[in-house]
């Protein structure tokens, strides 16, 4: 069974639109908290509630990778998700882990797909959530070369995160969705150019290029 | 639900027989599973982790932690809805701070003043 990357990327883009995300770094935690039926808590909180040492809790929840895990169960109220995560890791690792867990929930993963397929789809979801493609494409359209530094500044993702994410395929998302995301991010992009100019890294021509690009697009 | 009931519940959900689960866990026959589900065996942590993996859940669910945490976070809020109007909130705040005798006095007073209001559902409100 091959992972459905396209669906994962589209769902991630829809989430960006639905929750009006207009700047980076994209924080998955508030999004997770807004989804009905989802409870997010740290391993510490869970260990206090269960009255068991933190280390045992992590052992019991995250046997393989100790970053985050989602438990799904059904009760009278319907499907319930409890996301437990490791607060003591670096924020970028936590963000990526939570974005993956959000992916599992949004993509409605259950036992019907093999685990590696589920994980691969969740990773693709996280990639498109944390690094909105329209953001990169708009910058590219103004003639700026996308270097690691530009990516760091734009998305808030560090080198390690970018290198992990780069291995995943970037897939086609409906153009209409991409356009909406780009419009949402436009003030952020303009601000990015202004900041660059202020820092003496460009002479404002990129901003002018952006204007031309937008005019061309509007027609 | 207890740990043993949850194992039974999830096993049935995933369409496994006691025999299937026994084989996945490396037991020869279903007798051990029957004992586990009847709560006659103390399960070590490693076994719980193994069972959780087979049943496609986390040990935290089998242990009842996640359900309890969820109910604590969301369940109780739904039971006790906060008062809707600002006046009701002020009254509720005041009532919470009062000792029992004062609360009863206030309720008696209100019943005396506005008897019509307390005819129906007054017992429900008190609990």
Question: Helix and strand layout, with pairings?
Answer:
The complex is a heterodimer of chains A (219) and B (127).
Chain A: H1 5-18, H2 28-34, E1 38-42, H3 43-50, H4 54-61, E2 68-75, E3 78-85, H5 91-106, H6 115-130, H7 133-141, H8 148-155, H9 159-166, H10 175-198, H11 205-218
Parallel strand pairs in A: 1-3
Antiparallel strand pairs in A: 2-3
Chain B: H1 3-13, H2 18-24, H3 31-37, H4 45-54, H5 59-62, H6 65-79, H7 86-97, H8 100-113, H9 122-126
Helix pairs in contact in B: 2-3
* Adjacency order of strands in the biggest sheet of chain A: 1-3-2
Mean pLDDT of chain A: 86
Total number of strands of chain B: 0
Assign an overall shape of chain A.
Answer: elongated
Structural class of chain A: mainly alpha
By DSSP, the count of extended strands of chain A is: 3
Helix share, percent of chain B? 55-70%
* Backbone CA Rg of chain A: 19 Å
Contiguous helical run count of chain B: 9
Structure description:
The complex is a heterodimer of chains A (219) and B (127). Chain A has 219 residues and is mainly α. Helix content of chain A is 60%, strand content 10%. Chain A is built from 11 helices and 3 strands, in the order H-H-E-H-H-E-E-H-H-H-H-H-H-H. Chain A has helices at 5-18, 28-34, 43-50, 54-61, 91-106, 115-130, 133-141, 148-155, 159-166, 175-198, 205-218, and strands at residues 38-42, 68-75, 78-85. Chain A has a 3-stranded mixed sheet. In chain A, strand 2 and strand 3 form a beta hairpin. The longest helix of chain A has 24 residues, at 175-198. Chain B is 67% helix and 0% strand. Chain B contains 9 helices and no strands. By secondary structure, chain B is an all-alpha fold. Chain B has helices at 3-13, 18-24, 31-37, 45-54, 59-62, 65-79, 86-97, 100-113, 122-126. Chain B has 2 domains: 1-56, 434 Repressor (Amino-terminal Domain); 59-127, no CATH class. Chains A and B meet through helix 3, helix 4, strand 2 and strand 3 of A and helix 4, helix 5 and helix 6 of B.
């Amino acid at each position: 069974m091959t992972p459905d990357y396209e669906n994962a990327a589209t769902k991630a883009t829809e989430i960006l639109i639905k929750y009006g995300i207009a700047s980076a770094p994209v924080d998955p935690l508030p999004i997770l908290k807004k989804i009905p039926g989802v409870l997010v808590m740290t391993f510490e909180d869970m260990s206090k509630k269960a009255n068991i040492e933190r280390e045992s809790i992590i052992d019991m929840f995250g046997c393989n990778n100790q970053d985050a895990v989602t438990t799904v169960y059904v009760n009278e109220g319907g499907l319930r998700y409890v996301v437990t995560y490791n607060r003591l890791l670096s924020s970028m690792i936590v963000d990526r882990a939570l974005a993956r867990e959000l992916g599992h929930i949004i993509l409605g993963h259950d036992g019907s797909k093999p685990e590696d397929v589920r994980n691969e789809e969740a990773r693709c979801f996280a990639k498109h959530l944390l690094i909105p493609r329209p953001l990169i494409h708009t910058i590219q359209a103004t003639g700026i070369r996308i270097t690691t530094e530009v990516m760091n500044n734009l998305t808030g993702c560090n080198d390690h995160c970018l290198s992990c994410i780069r291995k995943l395929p970037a897939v086609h998302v409906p153009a209409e969705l991409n356009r909406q995301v780009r419009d949402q991010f436009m003030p952020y992009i303009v601000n990015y150019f202004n900041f660059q100019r202020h820092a003496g890294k460009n002479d404002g021509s990129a901003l002018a290029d952006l204007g031309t690009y937008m005019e061309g697009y509007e027609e | 639900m207890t740990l043993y009931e949850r194992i039974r519940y999830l096993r049935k959900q995933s369409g496994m027989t006691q025999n299937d689960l026994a084989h996945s866990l490396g037991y020869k026959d279903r007798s051990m599973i029957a004992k586990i589900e009847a709560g006659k065996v103390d399960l070590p942590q490693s076994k719980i982790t193994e069972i959780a993996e087979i049943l496609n859940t986390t040990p935290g669910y089998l242990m009842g932690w996640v359900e309890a945490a969820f109910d604590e976070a969301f369940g109780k809020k739904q039971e006790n809805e906060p008062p809707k109007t600002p006046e009701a909130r002020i009254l509720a705040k005041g009532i919470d701070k009062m000792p029992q005798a004062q609360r009863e006095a206030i309720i008696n007073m209100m019943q005396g003043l506005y008897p019509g209001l307390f005819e129906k559902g007054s017992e429900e409100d008190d609990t």
